[in-house]
Amino acid sequence: MSTAKANNKPHRLFDFLIEKFGIRSDYQLAHMLEVGPSAVSKFRSGRPVTANLILKVHETFEVPIKDIKALL
Predict the structure, then answer these.
(1) Would you place residue 2 in the very low, low, confident or very high pLDDT band (cuts 50, 70, 90)?
(2) DSSP H helical segments within 1-72, as ranges?
């Protein structure tokens, strides 16, 4: 799987989604994105965000891909 960037900062993306969409927790975010809670934790800890996750965020929240990339 390809990654969005080598030096991404997924915490910015997740914090944006949580604030904008009134999500209560990383657990709820993971559920909405159909990934395991540990995946969100791993991304927050520095694992590079995959193209699949970017697409999932785009499809789930209708955030333009260019905006998602800007948050990373």
Answers:
(1) very low
(2) 10-20, 26-33, 37-44, 51-61, 65-71
